[in-house]
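Case study 2.
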Amino acid sequence: MPAVKQHVELIRHTLSPEEVVALGARLCYSRATVNDLMERVTAKDQTDFCNRILSMGHESVMEHATFTFAVEGVSRVLLAQLTRHRLASFSVQSQRYVSYEKGFGYIVPPKIEALGAEAVAAYQAQMAQMHEWYVVWQEKLGACGEGANEDARFVLPGACETRLMVTMNVRELRHFFSLRMCNRAQWEIRALAVEMHRLCMEVAPALFADAGPSCLKGTCSEGEKCCGHQKEIRQARAAMMEQLRETQQ
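Prediction:
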């Protein structure tokens, strides 16, 4: 049973998402035909116009563009958090129809890794023990496929790996990033959000350049629970934007 690491891929997205968002916004304020507006948005870069849309808070037009991610090497603990974002579509590997009689991947939290090899070995032994319990219950329940798996899975740990696809529109992604890229977010889902944001930036930087925790643009929304690292967070984002500009030249 191997320890696994998170892996995220952007597998599909709306074609030219910045143009789609700009088209939706222009349509709201123009008497021009859709074809005329499409010619206008494809004729030049829409970065400045998208920035204006964002500054106006005209967020509904961002719902026309979607991004789909394939995610592996994440825990059921992360899944419970991710599915709280209800304006999204999910497809998740089933623990009922997929059997783990040959073992399951699992996530090792960084704080446990930091305790050293002895602690990691103890953690791995606990994962092995849970797998033994799982197999025992499969056998006791008749080893009859999903009929046994659906109840044997109750002894599987929150660390058990899952795989999923998730689709969100730009508006929901920006909301997701505002909550989950914050230093106060749990480490695993924060890592997922950071990587998803990086992938989005490669496709549509105008829509995501300012996306992230509230401290990027103003005061921290966490109040007394603020991490106190707003300056470092802003510096990291500035460095990201500078690197992006260099790669585009």
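The mean pLDDT is 93.
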